[in-house]
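Record type: monomer structure entry
Structure origin: computed from sequence
Chain ID: A
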Amino acid sequence: MIIGIVASVSDVFGVFGTGIGLLLGCDIVLQYYQMLVKEQLEEFSPRLAGILGQA
């Protein structure tokens, strides 16, 4: 929700390109962060990663 607000405000003021571009950039960064956390979890605790993967 916060990302949507930031994107719409930036679209109105013309800041940092378009609002859709900002929204897409935030989504890509979030996906990379989630992949990094998942890989670290799998290295640190394979049993916990298996349990969370099945849920």
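Annotation 1: The mean pLDDT is 75.
Annotation 2: The longest helix spans residues 19-44.
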